[in-house]
Design a protein that fits this description.
The protein is α+β, with helices and mostly antiparallel strands. The protein is built from eight helices and four strands, in the order E-E-E-H-E-H-H-H-H-H-H-H. It comes from Araneus ventricosus (Orbweaver spider).
Length: 253
């Protein structure tokens, strides 16, 4: 068997675990509601030919296309990843925000994985982390100096607005509850709160506290929570204690 041609091929070297700088999860957020561009990526392989395309749309108008031909030894998987990489680099070079649309579930899984050993995949992940950091900085800047844009208020806004007065009214009632049981419980608990209070900060449930996630990671935190039996047991115990507190307030003197 003649394998001389392999000497001319650049191989995707597997990264040693000790040298992996990207052995962490990359959080892929849902679509940005006010992204500057919608970018569609795809990879293809026909017989021994491989390539990928990046199509850039703005307000449903196809304004730019990038097409690249790869080598015959490259796989469709690599083409799909290269397309995503190209789209991300294009956005970074233009300093714009984009939504990347891909139908490659294997590429998404590789980017999300904390144990990918492919240098090609990890280089892509490192660039995505850098670009995401840049986008995060720009997003923070937009909160003070961005162009005013009208977007419908989310349902969470209503919850946030109503939550504060409800908790305040509950605490007012708590402090004024004139009974022996109420006075007894207040010796241990100065104020009442919502589910977050009992899950993350209440002194009575300290033994069962969970680590509070950053706002940007709440969705991923919840997905991990529902598959973590130890965390679920802590949550159950915290809610049991909060239920006991509420029950004590309704007991007869």
């Amino acid at each position: 068997m003649n394998t001389d041609h392999l000497a001319l091929v650049s191989l995707d070297i597997k990264s040693a675990f000790d040298n992996m700088n990207c052995s962490k999860f990359v959080i892929l957020n849902e679509n940005i509601s006010n992204a500057d561009f919608e970018v569609y990526t795809d990879g293809s392989r026909i017989e021994d030919e491989t390539g990928f395309a990046v199509c850039i749309l703005q307000e449903n108008n196809n304004i730019e296309n990038h097409i690249y031909k790869l080598k015959g030894h490259n796989s469709v998987f690599q083409a799909e990843l290269a397309a995503i990489h190209s789209a991300a680099n294009w956005a970074a070079s233009k300093n714009v925000s984009i939504n990347i649309h891909t139908d490659s579930l294997s590429s998404i899984a590789a980017i999300k994985s904390a144990s990918a050993r492919s240098s090609f995949v990890n280089n892509l992940k490192q660039d995505l982390v850098k670009i995401k950091h840049l986008v995060d900085q720009q997003a923070k800047l937009a909160t003070t100096t961005g162009v005013d844009t009208i977007v419908p208020a989310p349902r969470s806004y209503v919850k946030r607005i109503l939550n504060k007065p409800i908790i305040k009214e509950w605490n007012d009632y708590w402090r004024q509850y004139n009974s022996t049981s109420g006075a007894r419980v207040r010796e241990y608990l100065e104020h009442v709160g919502d589910a977050d209070h009992y899950t993350f900060s209440c002194s009575l449930t300290q033994k069962f506290h969970l680590v509070k996630p950053a706002d940007a990671h709440k969705r991923a935190w919840f997905q991990n929570l529902i598959n973590n039996s130890q965390a679920l047991n802590k949550l159950k115990e915290a809610f049991r204690i909060s239920g006991d507190v509420c029950d004590s307030l309704t007991q007869a003197v």
